[in-house]
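ESCALATION

Customer reports they have been waiting on this structure for their group meeting. Please prioritize. Original submission:
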Amino acid sequence: MWNIEEFAGAAHDTVDSLAAYVSESQAGPSPVLTNPPPGELAARLGLDRWIREGGMTGETYRGFLDDYLATGTRVHHPGHLAHQIAAPFFPAALADFVHGAANNPMALYEMGASAATVEFAVIRWMLEKTGLAGQGGGVLTHGGSLANLTALLAARAAAAPDAWRAGTPAGELALLAPPSAHYSLARAGAIIGLGEDAVFEPATDPLGRVLPERLPDVLDRVRRAGRRPMALVAGACATGTGLYDDLRAIGAFCREHGIWFHVDGAHGASALLSERHRHLLDGIETADSITWDAHKMLGTSSLAAAVLVRRADDLDRAFRQEASYLFYGEQGFDTMGRTIECSKAELGLKVFLNLAWYGERGLGEHVAARYATARRLWELAAARPGFTCPYEPQSNIVCFRYGGPDTDQAAIRARLMAQGDFYLSSAEIAGSRYLRASVMAPATGDKTLSALLDAVARAGS
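Update from on-call: job pushed to the front of the queue and completed.
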């Protein structure tokens, strides 16, 4: 049984430590990341001793937590510009705390009625925003990779209804996905038995965007290979560049040829909440399935992602399984039949509490502000000598280079990380390596952007 007094004391200490940590991170004086060697870090945290001996108390826990937080990555830091992970809003953090104590895995309704009902409401809201309300359905998963896999399972069920029992037809189906598609899609294709040879790449422009007028070419290649298309993937937006495909034109092609249309909106679907940016998703309502991650631009902690489908029955057909200890005939409000996961966290609560605190308008303003900051970075970089920007950003992702064609961008990134003030990622575009900034933290502003470009120039020199 819990020692309630001990829990309450440790919880208060946790809140105090986290509040100080986030406050310090947002202010930016500390390094954005600290990456000591694993052995050194394990010794500092006393991992082996705690595992072997136990005995942690409230006092020793406070010391451990402070060391633990100090040696991680500060996503709230203005210099955190590397990956598409939210600086989570505090309501989502509260939801994680609630789930950690209540622990209601709610894929079975009877195991967490309130958590399941909240998720239903969040899914209905997402379906409305994407234009799939009515016959549509969906479910939340632990991440966009699982959401993409679930969507392709639904597409496979539509293309090969007997695949769950008999297996994926060998050499028969094809997945149409551009090189810019998230790696989880090709991985999902392999998992469901298509194999790498089944992935056909449609023609793209030099920035990796699908060329709708060239889609007949890839369809012809698929047919000449003796296959038929299972699904076509479009990016909204692409992970590497943050650029959006032409969803309207691609969706029209898919409707004309009876091809399942999957929109990977894991990162960029949140622009639906911004009046200034929702046009980027024009045509998303033509999709058969959509992935939308809340732990990117909706400010939840990792992980919380939705897979949405035009017809709820397609998601129900993705899985065909029996388990007498879980499925008792009519499933009613159970979502276990729609997910890979059996025990699923109370993911909807994170999204709901952010909405309850800030509303659609507040979340939309958050998206718009991050997109605006990225555009500001592009403007500043384009105006400086030595910097090259391959495109005008459409989202909160910006790619740029410093120096000449032989300047090692990876080395610049490594120097920045070693200094600890800025954390960037990198991407390849048309065969060239670029530095890549994902503006996620609300604390990132003009002062940070100018200091970043100064640091890049120094590191590149």
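Sent to customer with the following note: The first strand starts at residue 80 and ends at 81.
Escalation resolved.
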